[in-house]
Amino acid sequence: MLRLSFVKKFSTKTYDTVIIGGGHNGLAAAAYLAKQSKTNKNPQKNILVLESRHIIGGAAVTEKRFAILIFAIELYPGFKYSRCSYLLSLLRPQIINELELKKYGLKYYLREPWSSFTPLKNNQYLLLGHDRQLNYEQIKKFSTKDANAYAIYEDWLASMVRGVNPLLDSSPIDLASGLSMKNLAASLKQIGPPLNAIKELGVKNIGSFYELLTAPASKILSQWFESEPLKATLATDAVIGANISPMSTGSSYVLLHHLMGELDEKSGAWGYVEGGMGSVSSAIAAVAKDNGVEIRTNSKVKQVLVETINGECKVTGVLLESGEVIEAHTVMSNATPKVTFLDLLPEKGTLPDDFLKAIHGISYSSATTKINLAVNSLPNFTCLPNKENNQPCPHHSTTIHLGAASLEELNEAYKESSLNQVPSKVPMIEMTIPSSLDKTISPPGKHVVTLFVQWTPYEYFSTTNTEVNEARKSKLASDVFKIIDSYCPGFEKSIEHVDVLTPPDLEKEFNLTGGNIFHGCMNLDALYFVRPTSVHAKNPGQVGGYRTPIKGYYMCGSGGHPGGGVMGSPGKQAALTLIEDLRK
């Protein structure tokens, strides 16, 4: 009997840095390392990004091919899906400018004049956008009091966002190392961003800011407004992507997190990227390649290689599933904390016990399903009929809120799913139609529709019986389509192709632990200097969650500060942290 031996193949060169994961944060880390190391006394000349999938982008990806057995066949010619993330706003404006992403092909479409559309069963609807007079007229249909309060509410939220901005663009304070007079310069550098945040907020607003961080969104919204259509519409930003209710403590921060972005200096603006969200990743990758970065796809990392010398554990490279060993002085992981520390490292002897316990304690609870659709006609809403056959109207380019339509209904949907571990009968559905503005992602006359469906538990779709899981996915999709049909009759008949990604699918396809799109829940116990945990390496000079207890091993993904979304900040700050370390 012939026996095959597993032979490790060694790469021909040693890299300065290997980055695990070609998502947007990993690519941003590579781009910043390559660009800024040109002025560093220890430049990063050889940088390698390893992506396990056939395509770069991670969750910020555009796909048009679907695998059948061993062949990749374009089943629905002309359709391109942003399979996971689907809107742009949170990508930091400094990153767009510093990396010159527009020069490298990034183009997006702002949604004007409306950005939000909530159809109601009584043939009414609520439209919201950036025009204050138009917002006033829309909200007045439900409450004059709320119409008068809305602009003031927007200004108040904007002031809270200004207070957060200095923290988003810097590394968090490292309380483990402490602040000392002995190293005054380093201490002042650490406390600079928090002081700037306080300055932007103003001392008188700190109480309001604290309440916004800790309170349920329902409390904040009810203090400002009385009409349920308005409150429910705004509350969707407090729960989207998170397994919480608008009545959950801390849900107001999730609301704030989704309002932190801007496009073209318009605070809170969201837009569609031409060619899908993969164009964001492609633009960042182009910058990285232009600065000498090597990017490899179909290169799954099996293990991060480490060695211990004189009691100090440090990285030496990575081992690929193919058996190839790639040596490196530094390794960065764009994966979730669970993958970074529990899956890729040897099981014993590499991490301190307290750090390991903290990593095991991270929550990845998720109940979000993404559904991508190819349709042959635009949805025609009963409350706001199409003016011309199959021609996009302004409301088609918005985020469309369907299903649960009050704070109480949203809370009941969450409780039903959480208690019974089944999908909510009346879920929260967010619909977008990116092809209403971006004509490059669908054939003429046809459209791409994306649905984000809230409270579809991970456990419900992760049975060991594949047939049961597929049947449950089909029923979920059918139930969602019936709900949409109640607002726009004939929608289900227009569907030509369905791509359903439940939480286990998101985990399998994109390596998102638990299907959590944020690389770990955005709870109050997992933000800023306690993200990913409150336990960091005890080395002097440690700054936040990018460094790890292993020398030369860094995090650069959304599991670090400031968290999830297509933001780029974790990748950038991780790169700057490494560059700072190289200067020491």
From TrEMBL:
Gene3D superfamilies: FAD/NAD(P)-binding domain. It is found in: Mitochondrion matrix. GO terms for cellular component: mitochondrial matrix. SUPFAM superfamilies: FAD/NAD(P)-binding domain (SSF51905). Pfam families: Amino_oxidase, NAD_binding_8. InterPro entries: Amino_oxidase, FAD/NAD-bd_sf. One of its GO terms (molecular function) is oxidoreductase activity. Residues 226-377 form the Amine oxidase domain. It comes from the Eukaryota. Probable oxidoreductase that may play a role as regulator of mitochondrial function. PANTHER family: PHYTOENE DEHYDROGENASE (PTHR10668), PYRIDINE NUCLEOTIDE-DISULFIDE OXIDOREDUCTASE DOMAIN-CONTAINING PROTEIN 2 (PTHR10668:SF103). Belongs to the carotenoid/retinoid oxidoreductase family. Interacts with COX5B; this interaction may contribute to localize PYROXD2 to the inner face of the inner mitochondrial membrane. This is Pyridine nucleotide-disulfide oxidoreductase domain-containing protein 2. It comes from Clydaea vesicula. The lineage of its organism: Eukaryota, Fungi, Fungi incertae sedis, Chytridiomycota, Chytridiomycota incertae sedis.
